[in-house]
Protein backbone atom coordinates (compact mmCIF):
# COMPACT_ATOMS: atom_id res chain seq x y z
CA UNK A 1 0.00 0.00 0.00
CA UNK A 2 1.32 3.44 -0.92
CA UNK A 3 2.08 5.91 1.84
CA UNK A 4 -0.50 8.55 2.69
CA UNK A 5 0.31 11.76 0.77
CA UNK A 6 1.57 14.62 2.89
CA UNK A 7 -0.09 18.03 3.02
CA UNK A 8 1.55 21.41 3.55
CA UNK A 9 -0.57 24.46 4.37
CA UNK A 10 0.62 28.01 3.66
CA UNK A 11 -1.15 30.85 5.52
CA UNK A 12 -0.14 34.26 4.05
CA UNK A 13 -1.28 37.24 6.18
CA UNK A 14 -1.09 41.01 6.32
CA UNK A 15 -3.23 43.20 8.60
CA UNK A 16 -6.21 40.86 8.56
CA UNK A 17 -7.02 40.65 12.30
CA UNK A 18 -10.80 41.14 11.76
CA UNK A 19 -10.87 38.02 9.58
CA UNK A 20 -8.81 35.80 11.84
CA UNK A 21 -11.47 34.55 14.25
CA UNK A 22 -13.62 32.95 11.54
CA UNK A 23 -10.56 31.85 9.58
CA UNK A 24 -8.88 30.10 12.51
CA UNK A 25 -12.14 28.51 13.65
CA UNK A 26 -12.48 26.93 10.21
CA UNK A 27 -8.82 25.93 10.03
CA UNK A 28 -9.03 24.22 13.44
CA UNK A 29 -11.57 21.75 12.06
CA UNK A 30 -9.09 20.28 9.58
CA UNK A 31 -5.61 21.31 10.82
CA UNK A 32 -4.83 17.73 11.88
CA UNK A 33 -4.83 16.77 8.19
CA UNK A 34 -1.80 19.01 7.64
CA UNK A 35 1.72 17.68 8.13
CA UNK A 36 3.00 21.25 8.43
CA UNK A 37 1.55 24.75 8.59
CA UNK A 38 3.66 27.68 7.44
CA UNK A 39 2.48 31.20 8.28
CA UNK A 40 4.02 34.02 6.24
CA UNK A 41 3.20 37.38 7.77
CA UNK A 42 4.16 40.60 5.98
CA UNK A 43 4.92 42.47 9.22
CA UNK A 44 1.30 43.13 10.19
CA UNK A 45 0.72 46.13 12.44
CA UNK A 46 -2.85 45.34 13.56
CA UNK A 47 -2.17 42.36 15.86
CA UNK A 48 -2.70 39.66 13.22
CA UNK A 49 0.50 37.86 14.14
CA UNK A 50 -0.27 38.04 17.87
CA UNK A 51 -3.64 36.36 17.24
CA UNK A 52 -1.97 33.63 15.20
CA UNK A 53 0.66 32.98 17.86
CA UNK A 54 -1.96 32.76 20.57
CA UNK A 55 -4.58 30.66 18.77
CA UNK A 56 -2.99 28.63 15.99
CA UNK A 57 -1.84 25.29 17.36
CA UNK A 58 -0.03 22.65 15.35
CA UNK A 59 2.91 20.36 16.15
CA UNK A 60 4.75 21.44 13.00
CA UNK A 61 4.03 25.17 12.83
CA UNK A 62 6.50 27.62 11.36
CA UNK A 63 6.11 31.40 11.26
CA UNK A 64 8.01 33.51 8.72
CA UNK A 65 8.08 37.30 8.91
CA UNK A 66 9.01 39.24 5.79
CA UNK A 67 8.46 42.52 3.99
CA UNK A 68 5.20 43.16 2.15
CA UNK A 69 4.47 41.58 -1.20
CA UNK A 70 1.41 39.46 -2.06
CA UNK A 71 2.84 36.75 -4.27
CA UNK A 72 6.31 37.17 -2.79
CA UNK A 73 4.81 36.03 0.52
CA UNK A 74 3.06 33.13 -1.14
CA UNK A 75 6.27 32.07 -2.86
CA UNK A 76 8.36 32.21 0.30
CA UNK A 77 5.85 30.01 2.10
CA UNK A 78 5.58 27.62 -0.83
CA UNK A 79 9.38 27.32 -1.09
CA UNK A 80 9.49 26.34 2.60
CA UNK A 81 7.02 23.47 2.18
CA UNK A 82 7.93 19.80 1.95
CA UNK A 83 4.53 18.19 1.34
CA UNK A 84 3.23 16.19 -1.59
CA UNK A 85 0.36 18.68 -1.77
CA UNK A 86 0.07 22.37 -0.96
CA UNK A 87 -3.03 24.22 0.19
CA UNK A 88 -2.91 28.04 0.35
CA UNK A 89 -5.17 29.17 3.19
CA UNK A 90 -5.68 32.87 2.42
CA UNK A 91 -7.11 35.09 5.15
CA UNK A 92 -10.89 35.16 5.35
CA UNK A 93 -11.30 32.23 2.96
CA UNK A 94 -12.37 28.88 4.41
CA UNK A 95 -12.57 25.24 3.39
CA UNK A 96 -14.51 22.34 4.86
CA UNK A 97 -12.69 19.29 6.15
CA UNK A 98 -14.58 16.94 3.84
CA UNK A 99 -13.85 19.12 0.83
CA UNK A 100 -10.12 19.21 1.53
CA UNK A 101 -10.17 15.41 1.75
CA UNK A 102 -12.11 15.34 -1.53
CA UNK A 103 -9.44 17.48 -3.24
CA UNK A 104 -6.64 15.30 -1.88
CA UNK A 105 -8.36 12.12 -3.06
CA UNK A 106 -9.01 13.59 -6.51
CA UNK A 107 -5.46 14.85 -6.86
CA UNK A 108 -4.08 11.39 -6.21
CA UNK A 109 -6.61 9.49 -8.34
CA UNK A 110 -6.31 11.87 -11.29
CA UNK A 111 -2.52 12.32 -10.97
CA UNK A 112 -3.29 16.04 -11.19
CA UNK A 113 -0.98 19.00 -10.77
CA UNK A 114 -3.82 21.31 -9.74
CA UNK A 115 -7.28 20.38 -8.45
CA UNK A 116 -9.75 23.24 -8.97
CA UNK A 117 -13.14 23.71 -7.34
CA UNK A 118 -15.72 26.54 -7.41
CA UNK A 119 -16.00 28.58 -4.19
CA UNK A 120 -19.07 30.03 -2.55
CA UNK A 121 -18.87 33.79 -1.98
CA UNK A 122 -19.28 35.47 1.40
CA UNK A 123 -18.73 38.93 2.89
CA UNK A 124 -16.36 39.72 5.76
CA UNK A 125 -19.01 38.64 8.27
CA UNK A 126 -19.41 35.28 6.54
CA UNK A 127 -22.83 36.08 5.02
CA UNK A 128 -23.52 34.76 1.49
CA UNK A 129 -22.78 37.09 -1.43
CA UNK A 130 -23.80 37.04 -5.07
CA UNK A 131 -21.90 34.50 -7.15
CA UNK A 132 -19.18 36.32 -9.09
CA UNK A 133 -19.32 33.90 -12.01
CA UNK A 134 -15.64 32.96 -11.99
CA UNK A 135 -14.09 30.75 -14.72
CA UNK A 136 -14.16 27.41 -12.80
CA UNK A 137 -17.96 27.47 -12.70
CA UNK A 138 -18.13 28.30 -16.41
CA UNK A 139 -15.65 25.55 -17.30
CA UNK A 140 -17.59 23.00 -15.27
CA UNK A 141 -20.89 24.07 -16.85
CA UNK A 142 -19.33 23.91 -20.33
CA UNK A 143 -18.12 20.35 -19.76
CA UNK A 144 -21.68 19.10 -19.28
CA UNK A 145 -20.34 16.73 -16.60
CA UNK A 146 -21.65 16.33 -13.07
CA UNK A 147 -18.54 14.55 -11.82
CA UNK A 148 -14.84 15.48 -11.59
CA UNK A 149 -12.85 15.58 -14.82
CA UNK A 150 -9.36 16.26 -16.17
CA UNK A 151 -8.71 18.60 -19.10
CA UNK A 152 -6.46 17.68 -21.99
CA UNK A 153 -3.37 19.91 -22.21
CA UNK A 154 -4.70 21.77 -25.26
CA UNK A 155 -8.09 22.36 -23.62
CA UNK A 156 -6.44 23.72 -20.48
CA UNK A 157 -4.39 26.11 -22.58
CA UNK A 158 -7.37 27.29 -24.64
CA UNK A 159 -9.57 27.89 -21.61
CA UNK A 160 -6.79 29.68 -19.77
CA UNK A 161 -6.22 31.96 -22.75
CA UNK A 162 -9.82 32.92 -23.47
CA UNK A 163 -10.62 33.56 -19.80
CA UNK A 164 -7.50 35.68 -19.15
CA UNK A 165 -7.22 38.15 -17.42
CA UNK A 166 -9.66 36.30 -15.14
CA UNK A 167 -7.85 33.35 -13.60
CA UNK A 168 -8.89 29.86 -14.66
CA UNK A 169 -7.80 28.90 -11.13
CA UNK A 170 -10.56 30.95 -9.50
CA UNK A 171 -9.55 31.19 -5.84
CA UNK A 172 -6.39 29.35 -4.79
CA UNK A 173 -8.06 28.81 -1.40
CA UNK A 174 -10.53 26.50 -3.20
CA UNK A 175 -7.78 24.52 -4.91
CA UNK A 176 -4.97 22.10 -4.21
CA UNK A 177 -1.52 22.14 -5.84
CA UNK A 178 0.93 19.28 -6.26
CA UNK A 179 3.88 20.31 -4.10
CA UNK A 180 6.76 19.58 -6.47
CA UNK A 181 4.89 21.19 -9.37
CA UNK A 182 4.21 24.44 -7.53
CA UNK A 183 7.61 24.70 -5.85
CA UNK A 184 9.23 24.54 -9.30
CA UNK A 185 6.88 27.23 -10.65
CA UNK A 186 6.59 30.26 -8.34
CA UNK A 187 3.78 32.76 -8.83
CA UNK A 188 4.89 35.81 -10.84
CA UNK A 189 5.03 38.78 -8.48
CA UNK A 190 5.14 41.67 -10.97
CA UNK A 191 1.45 41.54 -11.94
CA UNK A 192 -0.25 42.89 -8.81
CA UNK A 193 -3.41 40.82 -8.25
CA UNK A 194 -3.17 39.10 -11.64
CA UNK A 195 -0.38 36.75 -10.61
CA UNK A 196 -2.73 33.74 -10.57
CA UNK A 197 -3.86 34.54 -14.13
CA UNK A 198 -0.34 34.83 -15.47
CA UNK A 199 0.81 31.71 -13.57
CA UNK A 200 -1.78 29.51 -15.26
CA UNK A 201 -1.22 31.27 -18.60
CA UNK A 202 2.46 30.34 -18.41
CA UNK A 203 2.00 26.81 -17.12
CA UNK A 204 -1.40 25.51 -18.33
CA UNK A 205 0.13 23.54 -21.20
CA UNK A 206 2.41 21.68 -18.78
CA UNK A 207 -0.08 21.31 -15.91
CA UNK A 208 -2.58 18.51 -15.51
CA UNK A 209 -5.76 20.31 -14.42
CA UNK A 210 -8.56 18.51 -12.62
CA UNK A 211 -11.94 20.17 -11.97
CA UNK A 212 -14.61 19.14 -9.51
CA UNK A 213 -18.15 20.55 -9.45
CA UNK A 214 -18.28 19.98 -5.70
CA UNK A 215 -18.18 23.22 -3.69
CA UNK A 216 -16.86 23.14 -0.14
CA UNK A 217 -15.00 26.41 0.32
CA UNK A 218 -15.74 30.11 0.62
CA UNK A 219 -14.09 33.18 -0.86
CA UNK A 220 -14.33 36.34 1.23
CA UNK A 221 -15.29 39.34 -0.90
CA UNK A 222 -13.75 42.41 0.70
CA UNK A 223 -12.38 45.77 -0.47
CA UNK A 224 -8.92 45.53 -1.96
CA UNK A 225 -6.21 47.42 -0.12
CA UNK A 226 -5.00 48.86 -3.44
CA UNK A 227 -7.49 49.41 -6.24
CA UNK A 228 -5.76 49.63 -9.62
CA UNK A 229 -7.06 52.39 -11.89
CA UNK A 230 -5.97 54.64 -14.74
CA UNK A 231 -2.39 54.42 -15.90
CA UNK A 232 -1.55 51.60 -13.46
CA UNK A 233 -4.41 49.49 -14.80
CA UNK A 234 -3.41 50.22 -18.40
CA UNK A 235 0.15 49.17 -17.61
CA UNK A 236 -1.04 45.95 -15.98
CA UNK A 237 -3.30 45.07 -18.93
CA UNK A 238 -0.44 45.76 -21.35
CA UNK A 239 1.82 43.38 -19.41
CA UNK A 240 -0.85 40.67 -19.45
CA UNK A 241 -1.27 41.13 -23.22
CA UNK A 242 2.48 40.58 -23.66
CA UNK A 243 2.20 37.39 -21.60
CA UNK A 244 -0.65 36.16 -23.77
CA UNK A 245 1.44 36.76 -26.89
CA UNK A 246 4.38 34.94 -25.29
CA UNK A 247 2.12 31.99 -24.43
CA UNK A 248 1.31 31.53 -28.12
CA UNK A 249 4.99 30.94 -28.83
CA UNK A 250 5.09 27.90 -26.54
CA UNK A 251 6.05 24.64 -28.26
CA UNK A 252 3.17 22.33 -29.12
CA UNK A 253 0.52 24.98 -29.78
CA UNK A 254 -1.03 24.13 -33.18
CA UNK A 255 -0.79 26.70 -35.97
CA UNK A 256 -4.55 27.05 -36.48
CA UNK A 257 -5.07 27.51 -32.76
CA UNK A 258 -2.27 30.07 -32.60
CA UNK A 259 -4.00 32.18 -35.26
CA UNK A 260 -7.38 31.97 -33.53
CA UNK A 261 -5.93 32.94 -30.16
CA UNK A 262 -3.82 35.70 -31.75
CA UNK A 263 -7.08 37.14 -33.15
CA UNK A 264 -8.60 36.89 -29.67
CA UNK A 265 -5.67 38.70 -28.12
CA UNK A 266 -5.79 41.48 -30.73
CA UNK A 267 -9.52 42.00 -30.20
CA UNK A 268 -9.09 41.90 -26.42
CA UNK A 269 -6.44 44.64 -26.73
CA UNK A 270 -8.83 46.75 -28.82
CA UNK A 271 -11.62 46.34 -26.26
CA UNK A 272 -9.31 47.47 -23.48
CA UNK A 273 -8.01 50.46 -25.45
CA UNK A 274 -11.52 51.70 -26.30
CA UNK A 275 -12.63 51.19 -22.70
CA UNK A 276 -9.72 53.21 -21.35
CA UNK A 277 -10.42 56.09 -23.74
CA UNK A 278 -14.13 56.20 -22.96
CA UNK A 279 -13.35 56.27 -19.25
CA UNK A 280 -10.86 59.08 -19.81
CA UNK A 281 -13.45 61.15 -21.66
CA UNK A 282 -16.10 60.49 -19.03
CA UNK A 283 -13.89 61.77 -16.24
CA UNK A 284 -12.41 64.69 -18.21
CA UNK A 285 -13.43 68.21 -17.14
CA UNK A 286 -14.86 70.47 -18.33
CA UNK A 287 -17.36 68.19 -20.06
CA UNK A 288 -18.37 69.58 -23.46
CA UNK A 289 -21.00 68.54 -26.00
CA UNK A 290 -18.33 67.28 -28.44
CA UNK A 291 -16.69 65.25 -25.66
CA UNK A 292 -20.03 63.72 -24.69
CA UNK A 293 -20.68 62.77 -28.32
CA UNK A 294 -17.20 61.29 -28.55
CA UNK A 295 -17.81 59.33 -25.35
CA UNK A 296 -21.13 58.03 -26.72
CA UNK A 297 -19.45 56.89 -29.93
CA UNK A 298 -16.70 55.12 -28.03
CA UNK A 299 -19.26 53.49 -25.73
CA UNK A 300 -21.10 52.05 -28.73
CA UNK A 301 -17.78 50.86 -30.18
CA UNK A 302 -16.85 49.31 -26.82
CA UNK A 303 -20.04 47.26 -26.55
CA UNK A 304 -19.80 46.25 -30.22
CA UNK A 305 -16.21 45.07 -29.86
CA UNK A 306 -16.97 43.34 -26.57
CA UNK A 307 -19.79 41.41 -28.28
CA UNK A 308 -17.39 40.48 -31.07
CA UNK A 309 -14.88 39.24 -28.49
CA UNK A 310 -17.50 37.10 -26.75
CA UNK A 311 -18.55 35.66 -30.10
CA UNK A 312 -14.96 34.87 -31.06
CA UNK A 313 -14.32 33.17 -27.73
CA UNK A 314 -17.49 31.13 -28.18
CA UNK A 315 -16.33 30.01 -31.64
CA UNK A 316 -12.87 29.11 -30.31
CA UNK A 317 -14.42 26.98 -27.59
CA UNK A 318 -16.71 25.28 -30.10
CA UNK A 319 -13.90 24.48 -32.52
CA UNK A 320 -11.04 23.55 -30.19
CA UNK A 321 -12.86 22.05 -27.18
CA UNK A 322 -14.52 18.79 -28.28
CA UNK A 323 -16.37 16.70 -25.69
CA UNK A 324 -13.38 14.34 -25.57
CA UNK A 325 -11.20 17.04 -24.00
CA UNK A 326 -13.14 16.64 -20.72
CA UNK A 327 -12.06 13.30 -19.31
CA UNK A 328 -13.93 11.95 -16.27
CA UNK A 329 -11.54 11.01 -13.48
CA UNK A 330 -12.82 7.41 -13.39
CA UNK A 331 -12.06 7.02 -17.11
CA UNK A 332 -8.62 8.56 -16.54
CA UNK A 333 -7.88 6.03 -13.82
CA UNK A 334 -8.80 3.14 -16.14
CA UNK A 335 -6.78 4.66 -19.02
Question: Can you characterise this structure?
Answer:
The chain has about 325 residues and is α/β, with parallel strands linked by helices. Among the domains are: about 10-90, Spore Coat Polysaccharide Biosynthesis Protein SpsA, Chain A (Alpha-Beta Complex); about 230-320. About 50% of the residues lie in helices and about 15% in strands. Strands 3-2-1-4-9-6-10-8-12 form a nine-stranded mixed β-sheet, with helices on both faces. Helix 1 (about 15-30) packs parallel to helix 2, helix 6 packs antiparallel against helix 11 and helix 10 runs antiparallel to helix 11. The two termini are about 20 Å apart.
Give a brief rundown of this model:
With 335 residues, the chain is an alpha/beta fold. It has twelve helices and twelve strands. Among the domains are: 85 residues, Spore Coat Polysaccharide Biosynthesis Protein SpsA, Chain A, CATH 3.90.550; 92 residues.
Amino acid sequence: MSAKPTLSVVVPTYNCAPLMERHLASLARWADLADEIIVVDSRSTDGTLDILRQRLRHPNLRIIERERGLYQSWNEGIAATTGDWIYISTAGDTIERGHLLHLLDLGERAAADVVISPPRFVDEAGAPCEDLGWPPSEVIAGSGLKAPFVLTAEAGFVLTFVHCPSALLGSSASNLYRGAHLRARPFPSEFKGAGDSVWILRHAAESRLCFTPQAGSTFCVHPKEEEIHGAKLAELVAKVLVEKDAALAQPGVAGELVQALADENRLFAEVQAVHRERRRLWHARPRTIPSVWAWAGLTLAYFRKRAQLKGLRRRIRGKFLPAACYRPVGDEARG
